[in-house]
Structure formats: structure tokens, C-alpha cells
Amino acid sequence: MARHIAIFDTTLRDGEQSPGASLNVEEKLEIARQLERLGVDVIEAGFPISSPGDFQAVQAISRIIKHCTVCGLTRAVEKDIRSAAEALKDAVKPRIHTGLGVSDSHLQHKLRMTRDEALERGVSAVAIARRYVDDVEYFLEDSGRADKDYLCQVIEAVINAGATVINIPDTTGYTTPAEYGALIKFVVDTVPNISKAIISVHCHDDLGLAAANSLAGVMNGAGQIECTINGIGERAGNTSLEEVVMAMKVRKDFYDCETGIVTQELYRTSRMVSTSTGILVQPNKAIVGANAFAHSSGIHQDGVLKERTTYEIIDPRDVGIHESKIVLSARSGRHALAHRIEELGYTVSDDQIDRLYTRFLELADRKKQVYDEDLEVLVADETSTTYQAYELLHVQVSCGDKMIPTATVAVRDPEGMQHTDSCHGTGPVDAVYRAINRIVDVPNELIEFSIQSVTEGIDALADVTIRIRQGNDIYTGRGANTDIVVASGKAYIHALNKLIDRAAPSRLEKSLQHP
Ligand code: KIV
Ligand code: ZN
């Protein structure tokens, strides 16, 4: 019988550590609900001690998720473990994920501990965590570069202390599939009590090998894969959930494994994570990229038209990709809109539906046909505004090849006061940003600007994603409108609000700094 491989999703923890990807509590809840629908076994909801926002998110997710295990990360420190236990208190299936570095590099330079001290600290952390929950996962950070005998010694000790899952991360993405597979085999063959725990693989993609390494781990005895939607995460990211899941599904003959993932939900989940984090999916990304099922060469097109399987190993419908359908028009009522939004997997309040309906009617008036993709962008826009401080009320520009681009903007401040100002710039967007800067006086640097059309057609909704930097911190903003200049202004206000609100905990706070 095929082996069940547990899918441990860390989009909301390791994934959220991508620069500028921070999410508010409402966005995290939306993603957690979708992960449950997707069928993941474990949701790593955050790192509770790292910030009040993370604590609240883990707590809120623990309260609404019924079928998945909800997990909180900690350092091997009592106060972290207590904080995670508190945040997870209402979870049906809580898990504490604690641990410490094992490589000599981490022990000497980061932790400044001897091997014995680190082993003792790990054992005590597991014992403390077991006082609160029955399910304790222990991570051995930088296992990929650690001494194998010491690694096995720690694993044996933490299992004896009560660890139920052993996470062997290739933290730096250094190993190759053959090496990583051999490492998992070595652990299976060497640690005497290993059958009492599940081995988990956690790989980073610095060499583009994370999915291959994770699958090599599975082939050698791992029973859980840690991964993120779209592979987002620290630096080059984590193992991409959709890639390993589809590899095991399409090549079941080879891996002889199965997961509980409802693969038809993959594409929707990918879009939700991309719109909320502002991290775009590269067009050639396996499984969920815009070109993953596009055939451009004449020979391929001819083959696929005759028989899809000539060049396609996955039916796009198996990952939830369908042709865009016109779902609603200006004649659709509020109820029809609410129903479709619910079908798309979003949970929105009555107030939000009221606001969304107004925006939907404006959009339907301009564009006539409203697609699912348009609705997804409107909902993402709406849920991202919970910590709104400033609001863009009006944008007007004059520009052209013989004119000086000039913008006038009206902005409402957090106290409700309306301000209007104008400025010129090198182009209409620059002029809008300068005019906004005259009102919202917050120093920052625009480091990325991208614009995408949500659907096909000249009347399509424009989806603008920007990143701004202040010091070491990066904030992402998104804005959607049929007018690209208005969408750009909204994206800028969104990023500024995140910066001002500092709801986004800094990367420094979120990194695993052991005391
Ligand atoms: O990459 C890593 O080692 C981690 C651990 C904290 C699990 O993310
Ligand atoms: Zn990691």
C-alpha cells in the first residue's frame, strides 16, 4: 500500500520570512482556511514570541482550524515555549516546533555553545514542551552541514525526551539529492529509537534542489515534507508544496506515496498566497506558473490538439486551472457576488461584502464582464486594508509627450482629515508618488514596481505590486484598478500603511536569534 506522506505547510512562518511578504492577521486566517481546504496535515501558523502579530495569528488560526494540526515555532527557550503553548491553547491538534542548531558552524558562531550544552538544551526544551502538548517536533537547524554522528546522538536524546517528529533541515540549501537522501538513510539506520518518531524533511532552495532533496528524503524514510505555497521563503525559498505533491501524484508508480492534498485546490491557493504576499509567481514556475500549461511551438500545439497527453503530463484541471469564465456582470446582485466569493474560498464579513459590492459595480460598469480573477484581486484588496491608516480618495493626472506630468491627489489621514496636494514628476506615476509624499511624509525608497493585467483584454483590471524600503525593512503594497495610475497610487498607499503601522514585524525580529 502507498505510504502516506504528511504535508507540513510553513507558508505562514518560513514563507512569511520572504522580504516584504508580511501578512496581517486577517490575511493569515484567509490563507489558513484555504490550506485546510487544500488538505494539508500541518499548518505552521507562526513564531508566537517573535511579535504580538504572530502571537495573535497563531491564536486566531488555532481557534478556527479543526482538521489540521496547528503548529507554532519556538527557540529552545522556556519563555518561547510558554508563549507558543498559550497561543496554541485552543487548537484541536496543537504542535510545538522547537529546536536548536546542530552544525559546528551554528554551535560555534551563532549559539556559542558546546555540543554537550546544545544537546542538554534541546532535551530540556522538548521536556518543557511536552508539559503543554503531546505533539512536539524538534528541528536540528543546519543538519545538512552537521556532523552525522552528533546529529544522531541529539535525535536519539530528544526522542527519549518525548519528541514525536524529527525535523532534519537543510537550512542553507547546501546538500544535493544523493547526499540528503543518504543523510536520512543514515539517521534511519543509526538512531535506535527512530521508529518512535516521524522524520520530517525541510529543504531550502538555494541551489534549486529543495524539491528534489525533499523527495530524496521521502525515498529514504521521511514521512513528512515541510514546504510552502509557491516555494516562498527565506532567500531562494523553501520546497514548493505544489511541486512535491504533484511529483508524488503523477509519479506514484515511482514514489509509491500519497498525500491528502486536494490537488484541484492548488492553483487557487497559489493565487491567494501570491496576491496576499505580493510575491508574483514566475510564468515558467512548475504546476502553477502562467505558462505551465501553455504550448507555444506549432509542433506541440498540433500534438496537444490531437491528444493532450502527447505533451502534457498533468491535466490542468487536476490542479484547478480552468478557462476563465465570465461569472458576473453589472446585473448580478449582492447575493450572487457573496455566493461566488464564498465559492472561491474566501470568508468575508457583511460589511466587507457591502464595500466589495460597491467596488464590483464600479468595475462591472467599466469592464462589463467580471471574472473570478477580478474578484480574487478585489477581495485581496479589501482584506489587506484592515490596518489602513491613510486612504487614497482621488487621483488626477495630466500627462502626454509634450506635457510635464502633473498629479493631484486627495488622501484621508488616520484622523479622518482630508488633504489635497499636487506635484510634477518624470511620469504620471512618479508625479502621483511625489504628491502623496507631500502629504504622507515618510522617507522610503521605491525598490520594485510591477504591473500585471489580471485578465486578458484592453479593459482588464491592472494589478500593481510595489516594494518600498526603509532602512533594512521592506514593505510590499498592492493596488488594483482599471486605471493603472490609480492602481499604482493605491499600491503605494498600501505599502506606506504597512510601513507606518509596523504591523509587519521586522525581519530581525522574525529571524531565529538564539539568546
Ligand atoms: O530552515 C530551517 O532550519 C528552519 C528551522 C527553524 C525549522 O526553518
Ligand atoms: Zn527553513
Task: Describe this entry's structure for a reader.
- With 515 residues, this protein is α/β, with parallel strands linked by helices.
- The protein has 4 domains: 3-277, Aldolase class I (TIM Barrel, Alpha-Beta Barrel); 293-318, no CATH class; 325-382; 391-505, Alpha-isopropylmalate synthase LeuA, regulatory domain (Double Stranded RNA Binding Domain, 2-Layer Sandwich).
- Helix content is 41%, strand content 20%.
- It contains 18 helices and 18 strands.
- It has helices spanning 25-38, 52-64, 78-87, 104-111, 115-132, 148-161, 177-190, 210-219, 241-250, 252-255, 266-277, 298-306, 334-343, 350-367, 372-383, 428-439, 484-501, 507-510, and strands at 3-4, 6-9, 42-46, 69-73, 94-101, 136-141, 165-170, 198-203, 224-227, 257-258, 326-328, 370-371, 391-398, 406-412, 418-424, 445-453, 462-470, 473-481.
- Strands 2-3-4-5-6-7-8-9 form an 8-stranded parallel β-barrel, surrounded by 8 helices. The protein has a 3-stranded antiparallel beta sheet with strand order 13-14-15.
- The model is unreliable at 503-509 (pLDDT under 50).
- It binds 3-methyl-2-oxobutanoic acid and zinc ion (ZN).
- The site of 3-methyl-2-oxobutanoic acid (KIV) has 9 residues, from β6 and β7.
- 3-methyl-2-oxobutanoic acid binds next to β6 and β7.
